[in-house]
Amino acid sequence: MARGHFAAGCFWGVEEAFAQQPGVTGTAVGYMGGTTPNPTYRQVCSGATGHAETVQVTFDPERISYDALLALFWQLHDPTQVNRQGRDRGTQYRSVLFVGDEEQRAAAEASRQALADSGRHRRRIATTIERAGDFWRAEDGHQQYLARHGLAQAAVPMRQEAGSTPTAATRLGTGIAALMNGFWTGLSGRRHREGEVGTASGEREVPEAPRTSKRPPAGGCSS
Fold first, then answer.
1. What is the value of pTM for the model shown?
2. Active centre residues (catalytic)
3. 163: left (phi over 0), alpha (psi -120 to 50) or beta
4. How far is CA 20 from the centre of its chain?
5. Which of 24, 108, 128, 163 is the most buried (most CB within 10 A)?
6. Biggest CA pair distance of the chain
7. Tell me: the pLDDT tens digits for 4-59?
């Protein structure tokens, strides 16, 4: 198994999108890229720790490639925004690819350059590529948030077939950036009420996502 770490704004929806990919065997949300050991959600939201909300993805490279995960990453957010995603503002929402080795770095840099050259975005790609450091697992209330609240169905359009190419992932991902900036941020009003409940170690195994017609609650992720 291999791991990748992706920061693309509010980690709830990003985690669920990755979790639904065939070949992804586990996900966890947490904090990376800062200086404070084992920070709490409130500390990260203050901006003082320097962490970004990050999704840790464990995957089987024989079933899904890192390049395919990168292609999905670009579709899940607006990589031209600096220290924000939609209504969510703060350095914790910055766009970062945390790479574990030189092979991942090369793939991330090539993918970012291909996106810049594609002309899909008029503004400069703001995503940084940084060496992965300590991954601090977020509080239990943040883990598998959408699935636990019956909202995982919203991520179904993000699903792609195992072994699909980045081009195919890009086609399937059309419109997801708008979804993430609107729909997902609408889910986040509960974060301060429900997201700070204890801590735990380890990583969740990806379950079968529940199906529901529930609508997201009102509110935003901004703190």
1. 0.74
2. 10
3. left
4. 12
5. 108
6. 44
7. 999 999 999 899 999 999 999 999 999 999 999 999 999 999 999 999 999 999 99
